[in-house]
From TrEMBL, chain A:
GO terms for cellular component: plasma membrane. It is a multi-pass membrane protein. Residues 73-284 form the ABC transmembrane type-1 domain. InterPro entries: ABC_transporter_permease (IPR051393), MetI-like (IPR000515), MetI-like_sf (IPR035906). One of its GO terms (biological process) is transmembrane transport. SUPFAM superfamilies: MetI-like. This is ABC transmembrane type-1 domain-containing protein.
Automatic annotation (TrEMBL), chain B:
It holds the Pfam family SBP_bac_1. Keywords: Signal. Residues 1-23 form the signal peptide. It comes from the Bacteria. Transmembrane segments: none annotated. Belongs to the bacterial solute-binding protein 1 family. One of its GO terms (cellular component) is periplasmic space. Its main location: periplasm. InterPro entries: Bact_solute-bd_prot1, SBP. The keyword Signal applies. This is Uncharacterized protein. It is found in: Periplasm. PANTHER family: ARABINOSE-BINDING PROTEIN-RELATED, DIACETYLCHITOBIOSE BINDING PROTEIN DASA.
C-alpha cells in the first residue's frame, strides 16, 4: 500500500476527526477541571458566592498555619507506605502460590471478589467486624478471655485497621497483574535453573523476580499513587477519626471542599498533594528503572 | 462548519437548552430534608395549593447533602423557591445573598407567634430570614429500669448526682469493656454528641461561645473550661466510654444520655411497651439554674426566585393554623413526633406526652438557648468535637485543648468578622 493512501502526519482533517472524541473527553474531564482547580487555589470561594483572588494565601495558610493539614500529610504517607509495604509483597505471594496450586482460577476469582464490591459496603462490613464492643473479632477474643484491641477507637489501631482493610480490598487486583506476569515467564527458564541446581528460594530471587520486574514496578507505583490519593474507604469506615488519626490529605481536602465549603483552600491542598504524588512517583519510577538497568 | 463565532454560540445554545427557565405558572418548589413518607401531610397541602394558577411541589434533599445540593442547584440555575434551612447554615447563606429577608407583615407573624429563642435561630444581625419550623432541644434522657436497678428512683438534677448514678449503673465485662454505660455521649460523625451537650453545660455555667460581635471566641473562658472538665471528667474517670453509640440507648445499654427529642421514635421502638414506664426526660443536671441548647430549622425563600412574593405567601400558608387547627407544617411535625415553636400549633395540637412535655417546657420557660449562628458554624463544630475528644482521651489537658481550639476558631472568625 502506498503511503499517500493513509498518512496520519500528512495533514488533512481525518486524523483530527478520529482523535477528536479523545481530545474532547480530555478537555472536558481533565484539562478544564484541572485548570479551574489551579485557578481556584489562588482564590477564596464558597460556591454560594463568587471567587475572590487571594494570591498565594491559601498555600501560605496550609503550609505555615494549618497543623491539621500537615498531620493529614503524615497520615497519608503512613497509609500509602503501609499499603505498599504490606500489600505488594502479599499480592506477589498470593500470585506465586496460586500459580502453582490446583484450581488457580477459582482462587484468583475469590481473592478478586472485594474489587467487585462497593467500597462503602466494604467499609460498613469491616466496621461490624472490627467494632470494639460488638465486633466479631473482639467477641471471639472475649470468649477466650482475651481483650481485643480498640480497632477503630484507638488512633494507632485505627490506622492499622484501615491499611489492612485497604490491602484486603486491593490485593486481588495486584495479584492478577502479578499472576499474568508469572504466567508469561517461559517455563524453560525454570527448567534451566533447576538443572543448574537452583532451589525454590534461589529461583524466586534470581529468575522469577527479575523476569517480572516490569509488573513489580507497575504495581508498586500504581499502588503508591492509589494509597496517596485514596480516601473513600476511610471516609466511610472511620470518617478520618479518631481525633484525625486516619484523616489523609485527600479526605481532608474533600471535607474542606464539600463540608466546609472552602473550595479555594481545598484546591490548594489538592494541588500540593498532586505535586507530592507526582514528584515521589517520578523518583520511585526512576529508582526502580535505574536498578533494572544495573541488573 | 463551525467557526470561531458560531461555536461559542452553539455551546451557549446547548447549555441554555439544558437549563430550563422558570415558567411563570410552574409550581413553586419547596426543598426539605424529610422523606416523602415523613412529609406526607405537607405534600398533601402542597398538592392542594393553587393561588392564581400557581401550585406547589415537594423536592426531597437528604440532610447530609442538603447544603451541597442547594449550592450546585443554584450554580445550575435549578434552585428551589423555598428552603428548609438548618440554622447553622444560615449565616453563610445570608452572607452570600442566597436568602430573601422575611417581609415585614410576615415578620410580625413570626415574632408574635414563636418563642424568642427560636426566633433567634432564624435571625442574623437583627434581620429575620425565615419562619421557624422544626425545633430540637437537648435534655437528660434516662433509662429508669437501669437507674432503679442501681437503687435510684429519679434522674439526677446535679452533675455530682449524675456521676454518682452513672457509676452505679455502669457494668463492664471480664475484659474490662463497657457492657452497660452509666452515661454516654451520643457519638456521631458530626461530633454533635459531644458538642451539643457542651453547649447545654456552658449555657448552664452562664457562659457563651462568642463575643456579641462574633469577632472573638470565648473557649478560653472559665465557663468553657468548667463545662469541658465536666464532660472530660466522665471519660477520664471511667464513668463514660467514647466507644458507646447513642443508638445503644434504645437498645437498653445506656443509663443516661443528654439527647435531643428527635430520638423519641427510635427509643419507643427499642423500649416497646415499657417506654412510658422506663424512659424519663428531665432537666440538664446542673442544679436550679440549668439551661440547655435548642436548634431550629426555618423556611426561607431564595433571593433569586423570580416569584418571591408568591413563595412567601406559600410559606405563610404552610405555617398558618387552619380554622383553629394545626398548620400544614404543625401537622407534619406532630406526626413525626418533632417539636414546633409555634405557639398556635402547640395550643391547637394534642397535649404533649410525658416524654415530650419537658422539651416543650424548656422552650416555653426560656431555658433553651439557640445554637449560635456564625459563619462556618459546621466547620467550627467539627473543630470543637476534635478538641473535646482530645481532652477526653487524655491527649491534651482541657486547658490546652480549649486554647488550641480558641486559636483555630478565631482564625476562622477573623476571616468574616
Amino acid at each position: 500500500m502506498r503511503s499517500r493512501d493513509f498518512d496520519p502526519g500528512g495533514g488533512g482533517a481525518a486524523p483530527w476527526v478520529f482523535v477528536s472524541p479523545l481530545i474532547a473527553f480530555a478537555l472536558i474531564f481533565f484539562v478544564v477541571p484541572l485548570g479551574f482547580s489551579v485557578y481556584l487555589s489562588f482564590t477564596r470561594w464558597n460556591p454560594l458566592g463568587t471567587p475572590s483572588w487571594v494570591g498565594l494565601k491559601q498555600f501560605e495558610y496550609l503550609l505555615t498555619r494549618d497543623d491539621a493539614f500537615w498531620r493529614s500529610v503524615g497520615n497519608t504517607f503512613v497509609f500509602a507506605f503501609g499499603f505498599v509495604a504490606l500489600g505488594v509483597p502479599l499480592s506477589l505471594g498470593l500470585a506465586f502460590v496460586f500459580s502453582r496450586s490446583r484450581g488457580k482460577a477459582v482462587w484468583r476469582s475469590i481473592y478478586y471478589l472485594p474489587q467487585l464490591t462497593n467500597i462503602v459496603a466494604i467499609a460498613y462490613l469491616w466496621q461490624f467486624v472490627l467494632d470494639d464492643r460488638y465486633g466479631i473479632i473482639n467477641r471471639a477474643l472475649g470468649l477466650t478471655g482475651l481483650r481485643g484491641p480498640d480497632w477503630l477507637t484507638d488512633p494507632v489501631m485505627a490506622m492499622v485497621s484501615v491499611v489492612l482493610v485497604m490491602i484486603w480490598y486491593d490485593a486481588g487486583k495486584n495479584m492478577l497483574v502479578f499472576s499474568a506476569a508469572l504466567e508469561a515467564v517461559d517455563s524453560e527458564i525454570y527448567d534451566a535453573a533447576t538443572l543448574d541446581g537452583a532451589g525454590a528460594w534461589r529461583t524466586l530471587r534470581s529468575v522469577t523476580l527479575p523476569m517480572i520486574r516490569p509488573a513489580f514496578i507497575f504495581v508498586t507505583i500504581t499502588s503508591f499513587i492509589t494509597g496517596m490519593g485514596f480516601f473513600a474507604l476511610i471516609l466511610a469506615m472511620t470518617g478520618g477519626g479518631p481525633r484525625g488519626a486516619t484523616e489523609v490529605t485527600a479526605l481532608y481536602t474533600y471535607t474542606m471542599a464539600f463540608e466546609d465549603l472552602r473550595m479555594g483552600r481545598a484546591s490548594a491542598g489538592a494541588l500540593i498533594l498532586f505535586v507530592i504524588i507526582g514528584v515521589l512517583s517520578l523518583l520511585q519510577f526512576r529508582a526502580l528503572r535505574e536498578r533494572e538497568r544495573r541488573t | 462548519m463551525f467557526n470561531q463565532t458560531t461555536a461559542p454560540l452553539a455551546i451557549a445554545a446547548m447549555l441554555g437548552a439544558a437549563i430550563p427557565a422558570h415558567a411563570d405558572d410552574a409550581p413553586l418548589t419547596v426543598a426539605m430534608h424529610y422523606t416523602q413518607e415523613q412529609a406526607a401531610p405537607l405534600i398533601a397541602c402542597l398538592e392542594d395549593y393553587d393561588v392564581d394558577g400557581i401550585g406547589a411541589e415537594y423536592r426531597q434533599i437528604t440532610y447530609g447533602d442538603y447544603l451541597q445540593t442547594v449550592l450546585t442547584g443554584r450554580l445550575a440555575g435549578q434552585a428551589p423557591d423555598i428552603y428548609n434551612v438548618y440554622s447553622i447554615w444560615a449565616a453563610q447563606m445570608v452572607d452570600n445573598g442566597v436568602l430573601d429577608p422575611v417581609p415585614d407583615d410576615l415578620a410580625g407573624f413570626v415574632r408574635d407567634g414563636y418563642s424568642t429563642g427560636t426566633v433567634d435561630a432564624a435571625t442574623i444581625d437583627g434581620t429575620l430570614w425565615g419562619v421557624p419550623t422544626e425545633v430540637s432541644v437537648y435534655m437528660l434522657v434516662s433509662n429508669m429500669a437501669l437507674l432503679r436497678e442501681a437503687g435510684f428512683d429519679a434522674p439526677p438534677t446535679t452533675w455530682d448526682g449524675l456521676r454518682e448514678v452513672a457509676q452505679a449503673v455502669a457494668t463492664r465485662n471480664a475484659q474490662g469493656r463497657t457492657e452497660t454505660a452509666g452515661f454516654a455521649f451520643g457519638q456521631s460523625s458530626s461530633g454533635a454528641g459531644l458538642v451539643h451537650p457542651f453547649y447545654a453545660l456552658l449555657y448552664s455555667e452562664g457562659g457563651k461561645v462568642y463575643s456579641d460581635d462574633r469577632s472573638e471566641a470565648l473557649f478560653d473562658s472559665p465557663e468553657a473550661l468548667a463545662a469541658l472538665e465536666r464532660e472530660a471528667g466522665l471519660v477520664r474517670d471511667g464513668i463514660a466510654d467514647l466507644s458507646v453509640d447513642a443508638y445503644d440507648f434504645p437498645a437498653g445499654g445506656i443509663g443516661m444520655i443528654v439527647m435531643a427529642n428527635w430520638l423519641e421514635s427510635e427509643i419507643r421502638a427499642g423500649f416497646g411497651d415499657r417506654f412510658d414506664e422506663d424512659v424519663a426526660v428531665s432537666q440538664i443536671p446542673m442544679g436550679d439554674d440549668w439551661r440547655t441548647l435548642q436548634y431550629a430549622f426555618f423556611m426561607g425563600v431564595d433571593s433569586g426566585s423570580d416569584r418571591k412574593d408568591a413563595a412567601w405567601a406559600l410559606v405563610e400558608h404552610l405555617n398558618t393554623p387552619r380554622d383553629g387547627g394545626l398548620s400544614c407544617m404543625g401537622e407534619m411535625l406532630g406526626q413525626l413526633g418533632a417539636l414546633t415553636a409555634s405557639t398556635a400549633d402547640n395550643a391547637a395540637g394534642e397535649a404533649p406526652d410525658a416524654f415530650t412535655a419537658p422539651f416543650v417546657a424548656a422552650l416555653e420557660d426560656g431555658r433553651a438557648i439557640s445554637q449560635p449562628n456564625v459563619m462556618q458554624a459546621s466547620e467550627i463544630e467539627g473543630l470543637m468535637a476534635q478538641a473535646f475528644e482530645r481532652a477526653m482521651a487524655g491527649e491534651a489537658s482541657s486547658e490546652a485543648a480549649l486554647e488550641d481550639l480558641d486559636r483555630e476558631v478565631e482564625d476562622i472568625l477573623f476571616e468574616f468578622y
